[in-house]
Every structure is written in structure tokens, then in C-alpha cells.
Amino acid sequence: VPIVSVLAMIWLYADTRDVAQVATLARSVFWLVLPSLVLFLLPPLLERGYGFVACLAVSIGATILAYLAAIAIGRHLGFKF
Fold it and tell me: Distance between CA atoms of 46 and 59, rounded to whole angstroms?
């Protein structure tokens, strides 16, 4: 994520020379990284003995729900994603 984010910020600045847009992108990336951490439910679930496919499905499903919640909360607070 950091490498792609930095490249996106460089590209956006090179195309627009607009630091406000770069700041908005950086802020959005920051807030959308937080729900991605939910994916790391995978190791504790695996350590408890659940099957890999089930753990992966639960982790991905929980991450999707976390993203949807983050986007809804962000929009409610006035962020533009």
C-alpha cells in the first residue's frame, strides 16, 4: 500500500500540480487503510484450528464490511472518497 500510495500521489501531483488534491488523496488513503487491517483476523482464526478457506472467507467478508462501514462513516463526516 505505501509504495502504490506514494506513486499515486506523485502521479496526481505531476498531472495536476494541485497540492489540495494530493492532500485529499493522502487523507483518504490513511482512513481507508484502517479497515484493511481487519483482514489480519486470518492468523488468529487459523491458530484456533479453523480451516484455511473458512478463515479466508471470514476475513475477507469482515474486511468488506469494515470498508463499507468506514465509507459510510466517512461520508457522514463529510469526507469524499
Answer: 11
Residue 21 and residue 11: Cα distance in Å, rounded? 11
Q: How far is Cα 41 from Cα 56, in angstroms, rounded to an integer?
A: 9
Output the pTM of the full model. Answer: 0.74
Query: What pLDDT digit, counting tens, does each position of 38-68 carry?
Result: 999 999 999 999 999 999 999 999 999 999 9
Query: Rounded to whole angstroms, how far apart are CA atoms 5 and 49?
Result: 35
Q: How far is CA 66 from CA 9, 35, 62, 75, in A?
A: 24, 5, 6, 14
